[in-house]
Design brief:
Elements: E1 2-3, H1 19-31, E2 36-39, E3 42-43, H2 49-69, E4 75-78, E5 81-83, E6 104-108, H3 116-128, E7 132-136, H4 142-146, H5 149-156, E8 160-164, H6 165-168, H7 174-186, E9 189-193, H8 206-209, H9 219-234
Parallel strand pairs: 1-2, 2-4, 3-5, 5-6, 6-7, 7-8, 8-9
Helix pairs in contact: 1-2
Length: 241
C-alpha cells in the first residue's frame, strides 16, 4: 500500500513535531502494511517555493537515514499539500510540489466557507498548467457538506478526490463517512490516505481506522485506492479508467 497524503516531515507544518515522531509514524505505517509514503507538508507561501522545497527535501533525507538505521523498510516520496489561493496565479514553477515529480498535485480548499468561483478558477489554473489536481479530503469541506454540486464542478475542472481513512472509518462524523463512501463508489475518489499528523490521533493505524468501514466498500475499492492508483501516480501513469 502507498499513502499519498501525510505530514510525517517534522517541524515544517502542524504535523510531526520532531524526527522521533516522524520515524514512529513511518514505523506505524510499515506495521500496517504500507510500502511507501508520500510526504506532503502544507504549502502556503507561493513566494518562497525554493525555500520550502529545500527544507522539505533535506528533512526527508534525514528521515530516510534514520529509517535505514532502524531497518524500517518503507520508501518515502516528496510532495506537498498545496493550499489554493489567488497567489497560485502569480506563482512560478510548481513542478517541485507535485507528487514524486509527476503531473499529480495534491491540493486543498479552505475548510470553512470560501468563494467557490475563486476556488474553482484556482483549480482551473492548475489544470491549465498541465497538472492533475488531487483534491484532499472533500468530505471535510464545509462547502461540499452543504452543497454537493461542488463535487461535479470540481470534477469538471479535471480534478479527482482523495478521502481520509479517518472519515471512511467513521472517526470524523457520519456525514463525512457518507460523502467518502459515495465518492469512492462513484469512482471519483481515486485515493484513500492517512493525512497523518501525529502518532496518537491522526496517525497511520489503518487497522483501527478500518475496523468500521461500511460494507459497501469492497476489497477491490480498497485495492484501487490504496495500491493501484497510488502506484500509478508514482509512475506518472493515467489513473482514469
Amino acid at each position: 500500500m502507498i499513502d499519498i497524503h501525510s505530514h510525517i516531515i517534522y517541524d515544517i507544518d502542524d504535523g510531526a513535531v520532531n524526527i522521533v515522531e516522524s520515524v514512529e509514524l513511518c514505523r506505524q505505517a510499515f506495521h500496517n502494511g504500507f510500502d511507501g509514503i508520500v510526504a506532503t507538508p502544507h504549502f502556503t507561501n507561493y513566494y518562497d517555493i525554493d525555500g520550502f522545497v529545500l527544507e522539505r527535501d533535506s528533512k526527508l533525507e534525514l528521515i530516510r537515514e534514520r529509517l535505514a538505521e532502524e531497518k524500517i523498510d518503507i520508501a518515502l516520496y516528496s510532495g506537498a499539500e498545496l493550499y489554493l489561493s489567488r497567489a497560485v496565479f502569480m506563482a512560478g514553477d510548481l513542478d517541485p510540489l507535485t507528487i514524486n515529480d509527476s503531473q499529480y498535485m495534491l491540493c486543498e480548499f479552505p475548510l470553512g466557507p470560501f468563494n467557490i468561483d475563486e476556488g474553482l478558477s484556482e483549480l482551473s489554473e492548475l489544470t491549465s498548467r498541465g497538472y492533475t489536481p488531487v483534491v484532499a479530503h472533500p468530505e471535510r469541506y464545509y462547502a461540499i457538506r452543504h452543497d454537493k454540486r461542488l463535487v461535479d464542478w470540481i470534477l469538471e475542472r479535471g480534478a479527482v478526490f482523495q478521502v481520509n481513512a479517518d472519515s471512511l472509518g467513521g472517526n470524523l462524523d457520519s456525514l463525512a463517512q457518507r460523502i467518502a463512501v459515495d465518492l469512492i463508489k462513484r469512482g471519483v475518489a481515486k485515493f484513500i490516505a492517512s493525512d497523518a499528523h501525529d502518532k496518537y490521533r491522526r496517525n497511520m493505524d489503518f487497522k483501527r481506522k478500518f475496523s468500521a468501514v461500511p460494507s459497501e466498500i469492497t476489497q477491490k475499492d480498497l485495492e484501487n485506492c490504496l495500491n493501484i492508483n497510488p502506484g500509478r501516480v508514482l509512475k506518472n501513469e493515467d489513473i482514469f479508467d
